[in-house]
Amino acid sequence: MDLIELIKAIFFGIVEGITEWLPISSTGHMILLDKFIKLNVSEAFLEMFLVVIQLGAILAVVVIFWNKIFPFTRGEKYFIKKNTMIMWAKIVVACIPAAIVGIKWGDEIDAIFYNYVIVSVALIVFGIWFIWIENKHKSNTENLEQTTINSLDDITFKTAFIIGIFQLVAAIFPGTSRSGATIIGGLMLSLSRTVAAEFTFFMAVPVMFGASLLKIVKFGLDFSTMELSILISGMITAFVVSIISIKFLMGYIKKHDFKVFGWYRIILGVVVLLYFLVIA
């Protein structure tokens, strides 16, 4: 067993756990990371690994928000929590656009858009968009206080579907950030930062489970011992780091806006473009 490859997998897990939930694009960072830290694996395994490692991050959401996402409660008998079931129905509606496009054109999208130029441009464009949205919110604070959606229960099916369109944009263009796109969509639709972030986290559960299942089916279950070790190491690391990242973000947004992430995206996008155009 190659210890160096396991260390690389752990590093990928750290990056996944941090960037999956912060609105800075996990896919973008993973694509860029692969340019500098090469796992000694086949292209087919790497393609699967970069998606399935997200299952570790998803388990962090399930653990942290179990009481909000589990639709059953136990007393003398099991009862269904109506509000939770309705919330899941809204999440399903929100996931429809990305699911249709991902199943039908997923491979074509990967082939066309998964490169450093698209990633860099998406980082910059959505970074600027984040800053613009936050400045707009700041200039309309009084009006927003009257219209802000402060509860998951108040999200309508129409609003959920529109947020799903923003998720679709992220599914097509790596570097956009799924969490970033859906949070921006939520803010534009008058969701509070906390509600936008939570709904984004919950949307990720079926999306990532579905994407991971498709990649595993495509790759098959014939893992070598080394491949299985790399995958498990990455997933466990992503889970642990995601716990920390999610708790940090939920605490951060109670007192701060998202502009710092916008500036980070712009700087990173420019640096990556310069690196590949001038140095590489």
TrEMBL record:
Molecular function GO labels: undecaprenyl-diphosphatase activity
Coiled coil: none
Keyword check for Cell membrane: yes
EC number per UniProt: 3.6.1.27
Membrane-topology descriptor: Multi-pass membrane protein
Keywords noted in UniProt: Antibiotic resistance, Cell membrane, Cell shape, Cell wall biogenesis/degradation, Hydrolase, Membrane, Peptidoglycan synthesis, Transmembrane, Transmembrane helix
Subcellular location: Cell membrane
Note: Bacitracin is thought to be involved in the inhibition of peptidoglycan synthesis by sequestering undecaprenyl diphosphate, thereby reducing the pool of lipid carrier available.
Physiological role: Catalyzes the dephosphorylation of undecaprenyl diphosphate (UPP). Confers resistance to bacitracin.
NCBIfam families according to UniProt: PRK00281.1-4 (NF001390), PRK00281.1-5 (NF001391)
Organism: Fusibacter bizertensis
Catalytic activity, as annotated: di-trans,octa-cis-undecaprenyl diphosphate + H2O = di-trans,octa-cis-undecaprenyl phosphate + phosphate + H(+)
Transmembrane spans: 44-66, 87-106, 112-134, 155-175, 195-216, 228-250, 262-279
Alphabetical list of InterPro entries matching this protein: UppP
Alphabetized Pfam families for the sequence: BacA
Family of this protein: Belongs to the UppP family.
Enzyme kind, highest EC tier: hydrolase
Protein name: Undecaprenyl-diphosphatase
Annotated HAMAP family: Undec_diphosphatase
